[in-house]
Design a protein that fits this description.
Layout: E1 3-4, E2 9-12, H1 17-40, H2 45-65, E3 68-72, E4 76-81, E5 84-89, E6 93-99, E7 112-119, E8 122-128, H3 133-141, E9 147-150, E10 153-156
Antiparallel strand pairs: 1-2, 2-3, 3-4, 4-5, 6-7, 6-10, 7-8, 9-10
Helix pairs in contact: 1-2
Length: 159
């Protein structure tokens, strides 16, 4: 269920088990290698390198992938992914449509929405994975930013 305050509705990101597993696999592999090195030798440069690599990877995954959420405000859609934050003016959104685009972004699901908007006069695309895509689209349509629902997508009304 999306969280809401007076001006902003927040949607959490959808996560599929296999994508979370793929993101976590290197930590598990490095952890297994670390266990092996500890059992075999218990010290040495390789042990510290593997431990450092596991910690660095775990921190990077945490910082860039968790949490992912989308905030629909009066005039902006804000995408928060770990420490990254992108603000998209609602007036610049041209279209929001379902996609299974596999381009790599910090999304843990392939059931995505493609948001097409303008940045400095150029078309830009951002892939989003809100848990409740239908409610997300309805919320964007109700902002009064000139977007209307057409089936499973949003399009800009004719100007």
């Amino acid at each position: 269920m999306p969280r809401t305050d007076r001006e902003t509705v927040t949607f959490r990101s959808r996560r599929e088990g296999w994508t979370v597993g793929m993101a976590s696999a290197p930590v598990v592999i490095l952890g297994g290698l670390l266990g092996y090195l500890l059992a075999a030798n218990g010290r040495g440069r390789a042990l510290w390198l593997v431990a450092a690599a596991a910690v660095v990877y775990a921190v990077l995954v945490r910082v860039y992938l968790f949490p992912v959420r989308y905030e629909v405000g009066r005039d902006h859609l804000t995408v928060r992914s770990g420490v990254q934050r992108v603000s998209i003016p609602l007036a610049e959104i041209e279209r929001v449509e379902p996609t299974t685009d596999r381009r790599s972004e910090s999304q843990l699901s392939l059931d995505r929405l493609r948001v097409t908007y303008r940045t400095n006069g150029r078309e830009t695309v951002r892939l989003l994975t809100p848990r409740d895509a239908a409610r997300f689209l309805d919320t964007l349509a109700r902002t009064g930013a000139g977007l209307e629902r057409r089936g499973g997508e949003l399009v800009r009304r004719e100007r």
